[in-house]
Design goal:
Elements lengths: L46 H7 L3 E5 L8 E6 L10 E3 L13 H7 L4 E4 L17 H16 L3 E6 L1 H12 L4 E7 L9 H4 L3 H15 L2 H11 L5 H12 L7 H10 L15 E7 L8 H9 L3 E6 L6 H4 L1 H15 L7
Parallel strand pairs: 3-4, 3-5, 5-6, 6-7, 7-8
Antiparallel strand pairs: 1-2, 2-4
């Protein structure tokens, strides 16, 4: 059972936030959080989530489908790392806060780590209601990479973030040196059936489904499905973390837009990936069977599989030390360093 104490730390992790405290270039509230985060952030007890939330900032990203820049939320490195940039995506309807336990471990190991909110989710300013379909998400990530990261990255995608990563690397192979896929949701065929329905009916149905995603009971249920043996208090706090971005006024419109435009279907793209890939999988995943890890390993051209026992769907939250060690070693190999793990 996870022995996590609210307000303290994840088991086995130690981290001094002052070591990597960045200078702020944005408005900060009295509670230390960026002013653009929903007020409910102050109700979160998890120390690592609070530390990472205080580091979220918005960078202007110019995209071709809007006249104005999108102020895009991310956590970026405080100092130059010793590896190729490691860019951490997140899963469906989530945010950079998924990386609250792994991110400080990567930094302490000298990894040049970015955590980026996928367009439509997280804490970016979407007041202008931009398109949030697959092509827009891909283009937004590319423009952010082109403007700020500027060199080939190790792209990390958990769950649906793995589909985002595979889609991205096929269209922009020059931007990605390697891939890390974690409990990858890459064998779904998207939500295309919704786009074939008459629009008023489709919108009503999708909107109702999306509204349910925001509900406390559903978030609590999914937490207990995704993780093994969470206490009630920890599950409630993690539910608040996972739900926080849903409190932005544009969240529902952005998610409906994504689902009505078909979602991700990267099945035809998997065998086209040429980049070396690390697959990480929780053996006790109750959302996506770990048997699909072996299928994915067989279909990718150059892949290594690492499984984590007694772990559910989000190993980077449940077993952060293991995930961090795998990523650190993979990143150090990419930069020609000797492994420190």
């Amino acid at each position: 059972m996870l022995a996590l104490t609210l307000g303290c730390s994840h088991p086995g992790l130690t981290f001094s936030p002052e070591k990597f405290r960045p200078k702020r270039s944005f408005c900060v509230c009295a509670n230390g959080f960026p002013s653009f985060l929903p007020e409910d952030v102050d109700n979160i007890k998890d120390t690592f989530a609070r530390n990472l939330a205080q580091r979220i900032e918005r960078l202007p990203v110019q995209v071709p489908f809007l006249k104005t820049s999108i102020m895009s939320s991310c956590v970026r490195p405080v100092m130059q790392g010793r590896t190729d940039p490691v860019v951490l995506l997140h899963g469906f309807d989530s945010s950079v806060l998924e990386w609250r336990y792994v991110y400080p471990l990567l930094e302490e190991a000298g990894v040049d780590a970015w955590a980026i909110d996928i367009l439509g989710w997280g804490f970016s300013d979407l007041e202008s209601r931009p398109l949030c379909d697959v092509a827009s998400k891909r283009n937004h990530l590319y423009q952010l990479w082109k403007s700020y990261i500027k060199k080939p990255m190790i792209l990390v995608g958990p769950s649906l973030g793995a589909a985002v990563a595979i889609d991205f690397v096929i269209y922009h192979p020059e931007a990605v040196s390697k891939l890390v896929l974690i409990d990858a949701s890459v064998y779904a065929e998207g939500t295309r059936e919704m786009s074939t329905l008459p629009r008023p009916f489709a919108y009503a149905g999708v909107s109702s489904a999306v509204a349910l995603l925001k509900s406390v009971p559903l978030r609590y249920y999914v937490n207990n499905l995704a993780f093994k043996n969470l206490s009630f208090d920890v599950s409630m706090d993690w539910m608040k973390i996972g739900r926080l971005h849903c409190l932005h006024p544009w969240w529902e419109d952005a998610t409906v837009n994504f689902m009505m435009n078909g979602g991700y279907n990267v099945i035809p793209l998997i065998k086209q990936v040429t980049q070396q890939t690390l697959i990480i999988w929780g053996e006790d995943d109750r959302i996506i069977s770990h048997k699909l890890a072996f299928r994915l390993h067989g279909e990718l051209q150059d892949a290594t599989l690492r499984t984590i026992p007694e772990c559910g769907h989000l190993p980077h939250v449940e077993k952060p030390r293991s995930v961090a060690d795998f990523i650190i070693q993979f990143a150090q190999e990419a930069s020609g360093q000797l492994s420190a793990v």
